[in-house]
Structures are given as C-alpha cells and as structure tokens.
Amino acid sequence: MTGVMLEVTDLVKNFYGKSSSGIRTTKYTVQAVSGVSFELDQGKTLGLVGESGSGKSTVGRCVLQLIKPTSGSVKYNGAELTTMGAGQLRGLRREMQIVFQDPYASLDPRMTVGSSIAEPLKIHGIPGNHEHKVRNLLDLVGLSPLHAKRFPHEFSGGQRQRIGIARALALDPKLLVLDEPVSALDVSIQAGVMNLLEDIQNELGLGYLFIAHDLSVVRHISDMVAVMYLGKLVEMASSEDIFTQPAHPYTQALLSAVPQPDPATERERRRVVLTGDVPSPINPPSGCRFRTRCPKAADICATEEPALADPGVGHPVACHFAEVKAMV
Amino acid sequence: MSNGSEPSTPHVLEIRDLRVSFPTDDGMVQAVRGVDLDVGAGELVGVVGESGSGKSVTFLAAMGLLPKRAKITGSVKVAGDELVGVPDRQMRKVRGKKIAMIFQDPLSALNPVHKIGDQVAEMVLAHTDMSRSNAHDRAIDLLDMVGIPQPRQRAKQYPHEFSGGMRQRVMIAMGVANDPEVLIADEPTTALDVTVQAQILEVIQRVQHEMNTAVVFITHDLGVIARIASRVQVMYAGRAVERALVDDLFAHPAHPYTTGLLTSLPGRVGTRLIPITGAPPNMLKPPSGCAFRPRCAHAAAVCAEGDPPPLRPFGTQETACVRIDELTQVAR
Questions:
Q1: Which of A169, B175, B176, B220 is least buried, going by the fewest C-beta atoms within 10 A?
Q2: DSSP per residue over B142-160, as a string?
C-alpha cells in the first residue's frame, strides 16, 4: 500500500459575488484557495489545518469536485478529475467519500438509519438486498445491527457521526475527506470516534484528507500536516516536524496559541500572540498574505510572494525568513 | 468546605446547594442537583464539564436569567447579597453591577442598530448617575482597556463592523463597566479561532488582575483551564464531582470522570486514546447514587446507593467518588 493516491497541483478556487449599494453594483472576487499543491499517499492521513476562512474546507470540496475548481489539477490515482465528464466522475465517486461536521444535518430525519446507510448503494445501482452490508457497516463503526431500524433523532451526537462514517464507507471507498469530523463532539465522545477512524484506516487501508482547526486532533491522527492561511499553504511537513520544529511564523504562532492541558507547560511557555484578525480574502495583502500579522515582516514580504520550498529545514515553508523554532 | 485550595480572602461569590429543574411534558429535568462553589476576589475558577453537565445553567440561575418556569432552590450570594428568589426589579440592580456575564456568541448579545460606544455607555448609565458625556468617556476608557485600537473612532461604529474577537472584547468591556465583584465567562472563546482566543484570554486575565475581579470561567476545553485557572470545579450530570487546584487536577485527578476526560485528549501520534464509554445520563431520571457509575470502569454496588455523593476532602483535593481510597491504593 504505497504510492501517491491524490495529487493536487496549483488548485485555485475563486467565488464571484456582487454587492449593491443602491446606486451602483460592485463585483468582487473571494480568493478562497489560491494555488494549493499537495500529495496524499495511499493508506495515509494528510491533516489540513487552518483558521476560519483559510480555505481548508473549500480544498476538500474541490478535491471531490463537489465544487468546480477555478483552475489547477486534481489527480486521483493518475486520473485528472477536473476535466472529467459527469458520467465518468460518478463512477469514481464511489471511491471518494466525505464525512461532514454535523451528522444530524447530513442525515434525513425521516429515513431509518439502515436506509440512510444503504442509500449510496442504491444510488450507484448496486443490486441485491443490502441488509447484510448495512449490518456489517454498523458493526464496523461500533453500533448494533438493531440500530438499522431506528431514526437519527434517537442517537447521540457521537453515534450520529458513526452513522455518517458508516454511510461514507458503504461503497468501499479508497479516499475519505473528513471535514471537521469530531469538532462538534464532546472530548470523551470524540476520542471514541478518533479511535474508530484509526481502526478503519488500518483495516481497510483508506487515505484520509483530514480537515480540522483543532491542532491536537490533527497531530494525533495525521502522518503529514499542511498548514493553510488565507487560501495558501504556508508550511507542510510530517506531523512530528510540524509540531516540534515549525519554521513558518504563522505555524509557530498557531501552535503557541493552542492551550496545552498541562498547567506547568502553560506557565513556562513563551507565547507569540498575534495581533489583529485574518484579512479579507476579497482583498488579500500583496506578497506574503501573512505579513500584516507577522512579527518578522519586512519590505520584501510586501513585494515578493515567498514560494513554498524547502529553505534548508527539511520541509517546505513559504517564508522569506523561515527559521526552525523548537516548540514545547 | 474548607481545604488547602481555598483562598484566604473572603468569598465574593458563594453558591450553596443550588438546584435547578425544568418542567417538561415527560417530567422534571433535573439540570442542576446541588452545586456549591466559593470564589474569592481576584480569583479565576474554571468550571469544566461537557454538554448537559449543568455548568451553564448553574450560572444562568445565579444571574436570574432562566425562564420563569425554571424551579430554583438553594442560595447564591454575591458580596453577601442573596440572589435566589429576589424580585426582578431588585435583580436588575445587581446584574451588571455586582455580577456580570459574557457569552459564547457576542453578536446576539449586542444590539445591531446602536453604536458600540453607546451600548457600553448604556451599561454605565444603568447603574450610576453619571452624565451622558462622562459615561461616554468611561466607555472609551473601557474599550481601550480591553485592547480595542483607536477606541474613540471604533466607539462610533456598529457591531457588524467588528470582528468576532473584537465583539467579544466589547462584551468584556460591558461586563466590567461597573467594576463588578464577579464576572461569569460562559465559553467566551469557543467560537473564536485559536489565535484570537489567545488574545481574549489575555484580556480576561488583565481584567482579573487589574480590577481584582473574581472570574468564573466556564469551558469544555481543558487546555484553556490549564492556561488561566487557579482552581477547577469539574461538573457531571448537574453535580460537582471534583474540585482541585489546577496543578493537582492535571497531575492526579481524583475522580474517574476527570481521569476519563484527560485520557480522552488527543496528543501524539501512536498513543491510543481512551474514551469514556456510553453517554451522559437522562436528567429526567438520573441514576441513583453516583451519576457517573453507568460509564465508570470502577463502579461497584456501593456507587448505586442513596443520594448522589457529595464532595469530600481527599488530600489537597475534593472528590465525589466514594471509592477513591480503594482506587488510589490499587493505582499505587
């Protein structure tokens, strides 16, 4: 189980909008994703982290062609998805599924859990009685086969997320996009769903694109981590390197902002507290998009956009002043 | 009630045997089932618990902000004044003056059609006989204190012109406008990005230290607790199950539920998480004895007996676990 499963190159997604002030209408462009490239190996997990508005969910949706990218390439096992016809794409969709944050919103309240899980099988015209398959799926995600006859409202949040995962697995996919799959869950419940995701990956060899804002969750589950800021990747490395030897000032600030559940560590840590908020993706800063909040910003940062390349630290970083900083 | 973790300063907030229940079609939901808490001036106490643990309801009851149908008994004293059962008219004089509360979603707490400066000034005017222009100056000072840049200009703007973090700063400014003894912060950073959360936590700590305000910080995030709290009360199923100094809580939790929360936290790759099995109890019919026992790996017959166990001293901590002595002996 090796080899590149997903290859994303120079992915761009712009959303176009109009705002009207009564007198005149102005058009604007939201640059949600601006040239993102990464690879995901079979059976591995790539964590995509970033704050609200960083474009991480848009990347996930573009990968699955749920929204059409503005430009760039998405290759799944060598096949280009962005130019593929609807019919062909539909066939490949069986292998690529998504799990959303809110399982209640993505389950039909009037359908039994069993029919919800079997629905993808029907849609893809897989013949036969799916009862056996549904039972196996429920078993796989740690629910009872008896649950198939019940309705979503009879389940807790953690159980609903397990149902969402069972449905995503119904077509035996090879790639799962997990968009904040545990962020709505209490921590004691979240741990069970995380374990489940790990078990399923070990058992079935799935590739995960794991999108989340919670860095400790991403650290726990990811092999590789890519950090996004305002539509761009700023740093990408193994999970271990990102969390212990980050070289981008944004990654460093992000990590130091995350409170650690250890009072002694918290007292000793020197924090980089960023000032201000994330700028608007309608009119992002020139050059490096992070420069308006960056403690290291200099003139060059406004004029020249730093490329995502290895400045000699062992992994790619998009910063003119990249420098490894050991983190606690 | 006394142990090493209590501050020597007099308590500005004293909660005794607070109980809250709500009538529903299926019976009474027992949201809070006998909570005690003391907080000293300038102290920051963390209240941690998961959804439905009663952590928010406890303090909404203290603030008199629950709907009329809620049945509230027990006692909440702020600087000696009883708040449970007092008439609305009297409560309005206390709320915002002696005890104030900030929430997770600041946008729904701000009036969209009034300028920020006017809304902060309104808080000042509600409790003082200051002139309107003095109140406005005070509002600008407050906005400055909570770290809003160019407060004089920003005071003329409306809530929609503020980011989430800036709106939460405004809420804090309104909360402390009348220098209350107690500030209740109910998940104030949960909706914010982590870099903005770090800023807001600093503002709350500044208020705590500069104004000597007692802060009750309600959260589900143990990392936030570790960063800012000096003492912690852990809640489960409407009760306090553990109370400890922050270092003790993380170093040697004295209740299986606290232990479960800590082992559930994700850390490095390769370590297996240990979740808490099952789900919280139905508060229409909470289990007898310890409410955590259906999910507890150490539950025994004694855990099901009688009323929910009260907190009792255990070393420097307090725990509601009736088997804690046996459990720690086994562990050692």
A1: B220
A2: HHHHTT-SSHHHHTTS-GG
